[in-house]
Amino acid sequence: MATEERTLEQKLEALLDQETFPPPDGFREKALIKDDSIYEEAESDYEGFWAKQAEALHWEKKWDEVLDWSDPPNAKWFVGGKLNVAYNCVDRHVEAGNGDRVAFHWRGEEGETEEVTYADLHRDVQKFANALKDLGVEPGDVVGIFLPMIPEVVVAMLACARIGAPHNVVFGGFSPESVRERMEFSDAKALITVDGARRKGKTASIKSQVDEVMGDLKSLEHVIVVKRTGEDAPMGERDHWYHELIEKADDECQAEGFDAEHPLYILYSSGSTAKPKGILHTTGGYLTGVAYTHKVVFDLKPEEDVYWCSADVGWVTGHSYIVYGPLANGCTSVMYEGAPDYPDKDVWFDVIESYGVTIFYTAPTAIRTCMKWGAAYPEKHDLSSLRLLGTVGEPINPKAWLWYHVVVGGERCPIVDTWWQTETGHIMISPLPGITDTKPGSATRPLPGVDARVVNESDGEDAGTEQGLLTLRRPWPGMLRNLYRDEDRFIETYWDKFGRDVYFVGDASRKDEDGYFWVIGRVDDVLNVSGHRMSTAEIESAIVSHGKVAEAAVIGQADEDTGHSVAAFVTLEGSQTESDELVTEIRDHVAKRIGKFARPKRIIWADDLPKTRSGKIMRRLLRDIAEGRELGDVTTLRDPDVMAQLEGRIKERQAEED
Ligand code: WTA
């Protein structure tokens, strides 16, 4: 180990003993929120508090009532109000004289750059909104978006918002089959995609792959294709080039005010069954929530800051904190197309240095990866522009937090560990950087206006400082309003456990003596692999659809780098023999059905799976043996010998891996 590494290691070790980290010197004085009174203000009148935040937006018509919660869990926020999201994110900044302000410093994988100003967005969003209208897209029609991290994805989302057509964005890492499934479930009328995409110096054709699976989907009337890589893109009758549509379209598209509860988007997310959930967000409350939290959590000064959220726009973090929150606040962001290790492992730090990024928001898994690559990469660059760091997506271990704090933040940047979900729409538990003493590994306290509680599973009562289930007690403006076309599942999943007015989060958590929340992780069959949310049932269903597989059980194994990793216990059809080729085949099959990111890291052959007498697979036992824990009671199993066989298999596997 080099001397510098050893010194860093010792420093981090020493800091592990430090329990709290107050805001750095001088930060509080300049912060937007300087004192605790904001919590009391929100507590004493939380509807009034949210109404005040909503007033920061432009409303075509003001609301009559802040919140209607008379029929939980159906919340209505800003009842009777009307607004246009695209107007709020673009037009009003241009009208205020900030058209020349950069909305996105875009950087492509090969280092090419583009500066997208608010005036550029204003022009393109209007044109593309008109193009969609010309194709017959009307308010309420669902528009799919399957695009990489290029400026057009923002234009597409805002154009949909402008004409009241809810978008359904699918993360670029999903396979075309997953895209098809999501288009089918949501009855999408149009899909916006790309000829090809780039990843680490290679290109992949997208349009032709999409065609392969989308051919017979009748509801899909139009496919709009952005020209990106020049990849061969067969264009049929329902296909249109994005640039041609933009060229032809009229310049002006009036921003009509839509009802505050008009649907803004659907985002499919993994739940505990094989079918993804279409999480539905609406207009007024959502925009209020993302704009407010983006401002106070990141202490945003739109005139000075350069903000960068490294998520992909296809996940909720990208929706709320690349697109809607930052643009509603008129802020300048960085948008980066590529991977963190291409062309080299310092590219993120190069981006920070070259644009003078002041606020950086990323995932713990990315921090752990950078930590593994070593401090030499960030140290090659001048990161002194940074003044605030954030994390999201999974619990962060104290060691990674401290590395982020010392190596990236130079010990001068507060870290905001933000807890929230696709369902919550915006950040719910997080430090306020000017006032909160942070503790590495804790998302600290609920934001003003948020009522989060940890309760016992058995009776729903307050769990004190014991571990329990996280719940949210009060409606909040950005909350999901429904699961698209699946109301029963909406109630069953979130509002059945402790009553119709208590939102069941699905995370285990602990609250310490200081009222700080330590979110531990999911209590359902949802995994978090490198910050990507997926369901065991979805992966099982993909594996079982392989012709040679009889049965499969998927579990998440704790993994130092990625949080969880996917392990699959697989039983083959009688006539099949286990082989390394078959392992590859099954992994490829999962990539095709869901996406590469869902491929199991380990496949463990099993002659049989542990099942109860009623035939239910006992995943708990599989998790226990996979992680080398003592097995608990196995007498409820139909065939207790199964476990002994599996234990043998796992030991063999581990010996091979060592
Ligand atoms: C987890 C991502 C601990 C949690 C925005 C949650 C976290 C799930 C944190 C939602 C955090 C998110 N600390 N755990 N700061 N942030 N999680 O829907 O388990 O992709 O339920 O939303 O991620 O994942 P989703």
Short account of what is shown:
With 658 residues, this protein is of the alpha/beta class. It has 21 helices and 30 strands. It has an eight-stranded mixed beta sheet with strand order 12-11-8-6-7-14-15-23, with helices on both faces.
Could you explain how this protein is built, in words?
There is one protein chain. By secondary structure, this protein is α/β, with parallel strands linked by helices. 34% of the residues lie in helices and 23% in strands. It has 21 helices and 30 strands. Helix 16 links the parallel strand 19 and strand 20 (415-418). Helix 3 (37-44) packs across helix 4 and helix 5 runs antiparallel to helix 6. The radius of gyration is 25 Å and the shape is globular. The two termini are 23 Å apart. The model has no long low-confidence stretch (mean pLDDT 95). The chain binds 5'-O-[(S)-ethoxy(hydroxy)phosphoryl]adenosine.
The DSSP helix count reads: 21
Shape: globular
- The parts where pLDDT drops under 50 for at least 5 residues are none
Q: Return the average pLDDT rounded to an integer.
A: 95
What value does the Rg take, in angstroms?
Answer: 25 Å
**Adjacency order of strands in the biggest sheet:** 12-11-8-6-7-14-15-23
Which hetero ligands occur in this complex?
Answer: 5'-O-[(S)-ethoxy(hydroxy)phosphoryl]adenosine
Q: Could you describe the largest sheet, including whether it forms a barrel?
A: 8 strands, mixed
Strand residue percentage: 15-25%
> Distance between termini?
23 Å
Structure summary, number of beta strands: 30
* Secondary-structure class: alpha/beta
Percentage of residues in helical conformation:
25-40%
